[in-house]
Amino acid sequence: MHHSDRDISLEATTSINKGAVTARFLIPNKVNSMAQELDTHSPRYDLHRLVVLMILAGAFTSAIGISISVWAEYQHIGTEVFFRRADYLGDYIHSPLAYIYNLSLVIAGSCILLSMYGLFRLKLGYYSHYIAIAGFWVGMSIILIGVFPINYLDEHRLVSTSFLMGTFVLYLLTISLRFNHKGLCSTPLFLISVFGLISATGLIYQLDWQTLDFIPCLHDQGEFCWVSLNMWFQTSITMIWCVVLAFTVRKLSNENYTPDM
């Protein structure tokens, strides 16, 4: 009986010690996790939240505006809408909901400007400043495309060319960022930038630099329009790039990333 009581006492003591050891390791981890969660909601992450929210707002606003305009045009010409240049959706004369398309571009461009301001203010290294400046260029060009749709042909050609060159520089800088500061450029962001650079390069090659416009496609002859297809691809890639950048910045804020300057 004495040996049994002593064994029970030893087992109880051992269990208590194990529980104490487990608690000693679990409690600090839980406290650290809670502290990190509270830290990411602190005011010093306001710029991160500004970048993420404004980029997502810009991408979704443009996506909704383009989708509504495409649907309205689809009711008239069917699938041919996808074989016409995307900027024709802003034509006030022929596009039923051109005002929605153009307004969505103005709002989306404004959101991108705010997000690039936040990105510029973040301490993510000097190279991120270049990307922020290029993004500011793209955002301003998007606003001007909404202000000067294809009805204002000369101005539209100028701002559309500005958008094309801005995206080319933006993708090129993002790809370069992968090799200079790998932690800042995630693999999805890098791959999207590669596709975007290829698309922008193709459009630059197809652009007539004397008129700052593309050779019109002959839709009546059933000709397949590579320019239109590439423009739609470029538009989609730009929106996807913005979304991926937003999640990349969010991931960096959660990891408390501090680059080598």
From TrEMBL:
Write the protein's name: DUF998 domain-containing protein
Q: Has the keyword ATP-binding been applied to this entry?
A: no
Top-level lineage group: Bacteria
Q: Which organism is it from?
A: Shewanella woodyi (strain ATCC 51908 / MS32)
Give one Pfam family, short name only: DUF998
Q: Which keywords describe this protein according to UniProt?
A: Membrane, Transmembrane, Transmembrane helix
According to the record, the segments passing through the membrane are 50-72, 99-120, 127-152, 158-177, 189-207, 227-249
**Which region is the signal sequence?**
none
Q: Which InterPro entries match?
A: DUF998
